[in-house]
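User: What would this chain look like folded?
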Amino acid sequence: MTHVMRTDTHSPHSGGDGDWRDTATRYALVPLRLFLGITFLYAGLDKLTDSAFMKDSGAGSIGDMMRGVRDSSAVPALVDMALESPVAFGYAIALGELAVGIGALLGLLTRVAALGGALISLSLWLTVSWAADPYYYGNDLPYLMAWTPLVLAGAPLLSVDAAFRARRRQRTGEYR
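Assistant: Here's the prediction, encoded as structure tokens.
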């Protein structure tokens, strides 16, 4: 018996289940964008409002945290750079997380924001969470991977980027 696979059952114009699948596919990155945007916005605000974090030393300080991970990090030179001015590094990370979070939430310069989020996650994975054993206990590697689809695809829907694209197309008379 030969099995024939139908290819016309989920066309965008079939009026069947293909419609919801097509819609789900178009909106698939929106929940990821919201989660990452809220998380990075929260992380930045949390750092900026934590009185213990933005200090050279002391319990919960950025300085003590960086000194604690220096010898177990994949790239000790990155930690050494941070340790030259731990408070400035802490502010740079916090402000970077704020910018990335706002960009992702609004869909504003989304690919740039996502690249920033990926770079923050990569640097934290190579330093702070590198020693997590097994590796999947560290949270920075999954964040790095989660940013990747947004680096590649941007925010084609429900975003400032999409509004700018639509406006540009309208001005130039280009319709797709």
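The helical segments are 18-26, 29-49, 62-69, 76-84, 86-106, 110-127, 140-153, 160-172. If you want, I can go into more detail on any region.
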